[in-house]
Amino acid sequence: MATDSRPGDAILARLKVYPPTPLMKNSELAKLLIQYSYRPAPRGEYFTLASGDKSKFYFDCQRTTLMARAMPLIGKAFLEKFAEMGLAPQAIGGLVLGADPIMIATLSEAYQMGLEILGFRVRKEAKNHGTKQLVEGPVSPPMQVIVVDDVVTRGTSVIQAIRTCRDEGYEVIGCVVLVDRQEKNGIKRIQDELGNAPVAPIFSWEQLKPIIEREYGLPESIG
Q1: Model's pTM, two decimal places?
Q2: C-alpha to C-alpha distance for 62 and 69, rounded to whole angstroms
Q3: CATH for 9-215 (3.40.50.2020, 3.40.640.10, 2.60.40.1530, 3.40.50.300)
Q4: Coil, strand or helix: which one is 159?
Q5: What tens digit of pLDDT does each residue of 83-110 get?
């Protein structure tokens, strides 16, 4: 008998009963990000970001996302965000390397829940040997996937991952990133690329900034 159910409906049903975490319970993850990943530039100096832009602060997210104690927090935060957005992915992943630890942390947490969500990695360019695939992992089109990443400024890496997934035949049903720097309209550019599919961060700069001010003091050059 034909049904109208989507491939990920069973996953979404499980995610919807996942205990919701108030934003500031995620403060443990926020504090790890700030302690290990957040870097203010010295007065009068700037960081050069991957986008080529200059900024007074920098998030080296892999200093947090590759920590064992951060991984369960990351996995829970992303699964909760999927549920909040009503997304039921068959697989998650993004452009190497920033997305990789987020994907692994989320898959591990999903497995603890009894959920079978797959992972994939999007290469910036195809290898010149082996299968020469741009999307690697135990996945195949037309799976419904969510693109993830660690930090967004312009959104260029995320948009590249979205376009590659679509070109390879996958249905991109949404995007979730760990940190939105709220510069250069990155989230808006991703949303424009996705169309009706939703995009959201776990943390925005405006959410992290008060914690930085309270816990560490915010340098005047960033205020």
Answers
A1: 0.86
A2: 13
A3: 3.40.50.2020
A4: helix
A5: 999 999 999 999 999 999 999 999 999 9
Q: Which amino acid is at 18?
A: Y
**Cα separation of the two ends of the chain:** 60
Rounded to the nearest angstrom, the gap between the alpha carbon of residue 1 and the centroid of all alpha carbons in its chain is 37
What's the chain's length in residues?
Answer: 223
E-strand ranges in the chain read 38-40, 47-48, 54-55, 57-59, 91-95, 118-122, 135-136, 144-152, 171-180, 199-204
Domain edges within the chain:
9-215
Q: What is the pLDDT of residue 22?
A: 47
Over residues 22-36, the pLDDT tens digits come to 444 577 899 899 999
